[in-house]
Specification:
Chain lengths: 294, 295
């Protein structure tokens, strides 16, 4: 298990609305100590990166070269996920098509960067009973049909992530059993699971049995902390997750994924002059977590 | 404006659950570059600790000596307060003995503040449950009544009481949430030793623009509690990890004439011991940046 981070560790700026580009982000992640990366493409469908432009392949080539030069490895990615209809432009046929194009592009980008897994958010069919696994699985297979086909063609896996319920609104794939049912129904070596430790802390008193049940099906990790209520995405050991137990369970369960931070510590709230120092602390926290993987 | 931290900053050792002694916290904060300290005595009534034994004065003197040796000084304290949700607090006040013990420890905390050389003891204002909600004068009189011995002792020792802005809990209105309530309290007392503590995190929970509250209190703010949150819960996270508008807050503190030190009320209790010092160093850098915004 290696210590990694999403490229979004450096993305927003407190001082200006401009985003930090991928090249700068990976250089600064490298400076903080990270050598393993997740290409965060969540903002691709919102046109908040430059990779929706026509020269995206050239841009990805530059990112790959920079990472190689620095000795960094992309192991996974986070393609766009369907969120709010208005934000993601999903309330028009054109918007839906653009979103779909960008998700497929994200899978291609992952392949070009050498990543092995794309983390996907399972969707919930709100027109069916949310506990009707069969209906929910069928809905996901239909919704992600093109992605499943492309990922198998390129040899890049899709890792479905554990989700969070809304207030009194159940969502599909919050539990290990639901994730396993979806994975089994896909019946493909290119389908696995991403375990988001922060999401699990919000949804269950004890996530250890779920991690143990999923075991080596967990192909990607999202590492962040919270207090069990809101999705805070804070640095581990600043919330209430029992990290010793979680890391031990990942080890005992046979999970071989890298430890990938999905935190906002150096995001758009942190002043520019403090980001690098904060990122170094994040890396040190990652090293400590890896020392607990035993 | 100097950068300070509380003796509660390191909390417990994650590995053993052992509470980290204030002397050690002072040493580690000094090593990270903090200049001033706040002795956090919030939990004095909640269980054992260095100031609960008969030799509490000696413990306070040792802590003061330790601080002097490290080149830091105590400027303020946090007195015990009655939690509205902690069962141990609710239980304590079920008996007359419990209430008397709390009182004794509250007075002791003021004396500890004095021994350490602190000038201000931060205290939470209380609600008079028998008064009409919103009758501020009744709440003020109630606070003065239940704190009569504390105020007398403060005058004797020349330690000030800084009443802190708090937040509504469980949908119950609490006196002292608004800056104007604290201001009314201060004006009513007209006593240089009864002033305000501004908790920036609490301000973020209760106001869209806390700069107006800070400006209203101005020089009456004698102590600061510095931490961040998401505007919903009292998270006590590091500045710049929540949504407090620090640039505006620091500017308002400067413009209003607040001369208090910048004292963090955020902690690294859950952090493994091997990462606590690094965390303190980052916090100190954050403090330096905040002070650079005090202009």
């Amino acid at each position: 298990m290696r210590v990694g981070t999403m490229t979004s560790l450096f993305r927003g700026r407190r001082e200006t609305p401009e985003y930090i580009g991928y090249l700068e982000s990976i250089r600064r992640c490298h400076k903080a100590g990270f050598r393993v990366l997740d290409m965060n493409l969540c903002a691709l469908s919102r046109r908040q990166t430059t990779l929706h432009q026509d020269d995206w392949k050239q841009q990805v080539g530059e990112i790959a070269n920079e990472a190689a030069k620095l000795g960094m490895e992309f192991v996974q990615s986070h393609p766009p996920y369907p969120g709010r209809l208005d934000m993601d432009g999903l309330n028009s046929p054109e918007g839906q098509q653009f979103f779909k194009d960008m998700v497929l592009r994200a899978i291609e980008i992952t392949k070009m960067l050498g990543g092995k897994w794309c983390v996907m958010h399972p969707v919930t069919d709100l027109t069916s009973e949310t506990g009707d696994y069969e209906a929910q699985i069928a809905h996901n297979k239909k919704f992600y049909a093109q992605e499943l086909e492309l990922s198998a063609k390129l040899g890049v896996g899709l890792a479905f992530e554990n989700m969070c319920d809304g207030p009194n609104r159940r969502r599909f794939c919050v539990t290990a059993n639901e994730l396993m049912a979806l994975m089994d129904a896909c019946n493909s070596e290119y389908v696995g699971i991403c375990w988001d430790v922060g999401h699990a802390n919000r949804m269950m008193d004890n996530q250890v049995p779920s991690i143990l049940r999923l075991g080596d099906r967990i192909k990607a990790l999202h590492i962040d902390d919270n207090r069990g209520k809101d999705d805070l995405h804070v640095l581990p050991f600043t919330g209430n997750i029992p990290w010793e137990e979680v890391m031990h369970a990942l080890h005992d369960g046979g999970c071989k994924a890298d430890l990938i931070f999905e935190i906002g510590t150096c995001g758009d709230k942190m002043p520019e002059c403090l980001k690098d120092e904060a990122a170094r602390l994040c890396y040190k926290v990652g090293e400590h977590l890896v020392s607990l993987y035993k | 404006m100097r950068i300070g931290n509380m003796t509660s900053a390191l909390g417990v050792r994650r590995e053993t659950g052992e509470k980290i002694h204030p002397n050690e916290v002072v040493r580690r904060c000094a090593a990270a570059g903090f200049e001033v300290m706040d002795v956090n005595l919030c939990g004095l009534h909640r269980g054992p600790g260095p100031f609960r034994g008969e030799d509490w004065r000696k413990a306070a003197e040792e802590l003061r000596n330790e601080a002097e040796k490290c080149g830091v000084r105590f400027v303020q304290s946090h007195l015990p307060y009655r939690s509205m949700s902690m069962q141990c607090d609710l239980d304590l006040f079920k008996t007359a003995e419990g209430a008397e013990l709390y009182r004794e420890l509250s007075l002791r905390a003021i004396e500890i503040t004095h021994i350490l050389g602190g000038e201000w003891a931060v205290i939470h204002p209380m609600n008079d449950r028998d008064a009409v909600v919103g009758d501020n004068e009744a709440h003020i009189r109630y606070n003065l009544r239940i704190l009569d011995r504390e105020i007398e002792l403060c005058h004797k020792l020349n330690v000030g009481l800084a009443f802190e802005n708090i937040f509504d809990q469980f949908h119950l209105r609490r006196f002292g949430m608004r800056a104007m309530e604290l201001k009314q309290f201060i004006d009513y007392c007209s006593d240089p030793l009864i002033q305000a503590c501004w908790d920036v995190g609490h301000g973020n929970l209760t106001m869209d623009e806390q700069a107006a509250g800070i400006e209203l209190l101005g020089e009456h703010i004698k102590a600061l509690h510095i931490h961040d949150n998401n505007g919903k819960d009292d998270l006590h996270t590091m500045p710049f990890t929540g949504n407090v508008q620090w640039e505006k807050v620091m500017h308002a503190l400067y413009e209003s004439g607040c001369k208090a030190d910048l004292v963090f009320e955020t902690g690294f209790s859950g952090m493994p011991d091997s990462l606590k010092d690094h965390s303190l160093t980052v916090l100190k850098s954050i403090g330096e940046h905040l002070v650079s915004l005090y202009r």
